[in-house]
Amino acid sequence: MIVELEKISKFYTNNGLVSKRNVLNEISLSINDGDSLSIVGPSGSGKSTLLNILGTLDLPTSGIVKIKGKEIQDFNEKQLAEIRNANIGFIFQQHHLLPQFTLIENVLVPTIPLKDKNLKNSALERAMSLLESVGLADKIHQHPGQLSGGECQRATVVRALINEPNLVLADEPTGSLDQDSAEQMGELLSNINKKHNVAMVVVTHSLDLAKKMNAIFNLDHGKLEIIESKK
Ligand SMILES: Nc1ncnc2c1ncn2[C@@H]1O[C@H](COP(=O)(O)OP(=O)(O)O)[C@@H](O)[C@H]1O
Ligand SMILES: [Mg+2]
Questions:
Q1: Which of 51, 55, 210, 229 has the least CB density, counted as fewest CB within 10 Å?
Q2: Which atom of ligand 1 is nearest to the CA of 42?
């Protein structure tokens, strides 16, 4: 078990007023080693909120979040960052690569706070090999501004994998890509799940991408329902 959500609910407050609608309503979900699932649903249905809670970037209003069996609600920022950095890689719709750094520098950023000396020492080698595996071997010294959107997004896959996470969370990873790059990105994410045995949760509007995962969930009106499963 990597992440376990037990009856989590979330509502936002605006100027101290609690909105009547629960964005998430008592959702339970377990993510195990090697799982792959996608989450679809209308805009504003809470997909990003759910993904952020899975990734410990946000906390639920009620319910329990466990990472590797540990309840995290009383963790401080430092403890959260540590458990997140050791277990979870993130991919967002925008690549958020730092423009002043080269590709190789960018993908190494998450290794800066690493505690694990072995993982830290082998980071450069791992970065090179991962960049090669996503077809960016000859671009490692270029800056993001010199690369296409698809290339930048493939680099974020490497950045997400650099600390050897157990789980990768992707929020609309193909949302800003043209069709060909999106197709390539989808293949890449699906291959990574199989090859690195890393669990993958993908939020997407693309049914093509959603179908590349083993299970598809729909989030609507605060409830998560499985709509398709290959297992
Ligand atoms: N920080 C926030 N403060 C207040 N409301 C928010 C905040 N983040 C999201 N929301 C609201 O929660 C709902 C779900 O948002 P979100 O998780 O981004 O949905 P999705 O990713 O499915 O489009 C929306 O109604 C949105 O306006
Ligand atoms: Mg969203």
A1: 229
A2: 22
Atom number in ligand 1 closest to CA 50: 17
- Distances from the Cα of 230 to the Cαs of 35, 109, 196, 213, 223, in angstroms? 11, 36, 20, 9, 21
Which residues, in sequence order, are CB contacts of 83 under 8 Å at separation 6+? Answer: 56, 67, 68, 70, 72, 75
DSSP symbols for 77-114: HHHHHHHHHHHEEEE-SS----TTS-HHHHHHGGGTT-
Note down the domain range covering 194: 3-229
Q: What is the pLDDT of residue 221?
A: 96
CATH, residue 173: 3.40.50.300
Q: What's the pLDDT tens digit per position in 104-150?
A: 999 999 999 888 899 889 999 999 999 999 999 999 999 999 999 99
Nearest by Cα to 201 from 170, 223, 163: 170
Counting the structural domains of the chain, the total is 1
Question: How are beta strands 167-171 and 199-203 bridged, if at all?
Answer: parallel
Q: Give the number of whichever ligand sits closest to the CA of residue 92.
A: 2
The two structure tokens encoding residue 32: 């195990």
**CA triple 117-121-122, angle to 5 deg:** 120
Q: pLDDT tens-digit profile of 178-227?
A: 999 999 999 999 999 999 889 999 999 999 999 999 999 999 999 999 99
In this structure, which ligand is nearest to the CA of 15?
1
Any ligand 1 atom below 6 A from CB of 49? yes
Which structure tokens are listed for 223? Answer: 């409830």
